[in-house]
What we know:
Number of domains: 2
Strand content: 25-35%
Helix content: 10-25%
Structural class: alpha/beta
Distance between the termini: 19 Å
CATH superfamily of the largest domain: Medium-chain alcohol dehydrogenases, catalytic domain
Low-confidence stretches: none
Shape: globular
Mean pLDDT: 96
Largest sheet: 7 strands, mixed
Bound molecules: zinc ion
Order of helices and strands: EEEHEEEEEEHHEHEHEEHEEHEHE
Amino acid sequence: MRAIVFDRPGAPLRPAELPVPEPGEGQVRIRVHACAVCRTDLHLLDGEVGVPEPPRVFGHQIVGTIEETGERVGVPWLGWTCGRCRFCTSGRENLCLYARFTGRDIDGGYAEYAVADRRYCFPLPDGYPDEQAAPLLCAGLIGFRALRMCGDAERLGLYGFGAAAHIICQVAVHEGRRVYAFTRAGDDDAQALARSLGATWAGGSDEQPPEPLDAAIIFAPAGELVPEALRALAPGGTVVCAGIHMSDIPSFPYSDLWEERQIRSVANLTRRDGEEFLALAPQIPVRSHVTRYPLAETARALEDLRAGAFVGSAVVDVASPTA
Ligand SMILES: [Zn+2]
Ligand SMILES: [Zn+2]
């Protein structure tokens, strides 16, 4: 089968011919239709979040069909958990000590076929073409988990208006929140997209919002945004860091954290997050702004993500009947 593989940190992903994978115990084989690109792929490529065993196939927002049953499913980042550790047995499988992740520990979706544990595949809502469903599986899901960590915050800041933020903006507006979108300074396209999706205000991350925020989610991998966002919070507000990796956070005075402000991170997802979000998304309905790439150009999709060359989500079309 055609696949795109990782060799070592810093080397671009390359096309390869691999044997079609055989499902193991509890696994199913999936014919991949599409797989959305995620910033985590860049962190993996750069060796920032561990070095996967080469040749590894990245891609953890997979939409495809289970060969045996013909059912269309989504495969997310969480690929396997032990079911026994203190985290698994307390509703926190996202923190499982032995978790295995799709596209890092298990081959992912930048290939014509993938195998996945059946218990971690999600049925997908009807009415979503493949390239629309794919970004829901990490950008949407992790964003949704981060949004839930904001409680009932009415005034919500989103720092880094990319794939996750443009989906979560729609959910937040649907829930009656006011969204303040922060982009790289001068990124007019991302700011225009934010306004078109219902954001009350959009500006550069070097700007202060017109009113204090009850919560802020940081999707950009830039640690200097943490004290920035903290300074934009009202008392009792929360900063949620939603990425798997971020540059170091500069020090800041305690007075910025005082008055019960909090900083926390969000790690991975639980299957419950997936079930809840995939039930909610069609009610809004969430629509992704998608740029499509053929499988052979997966490496370019990642570099375009790094360069901020598109707004919204990028999706690799592998063999989508809806392409
Ligand atoms: Zn991801
Ligand atoms: Zn576990």
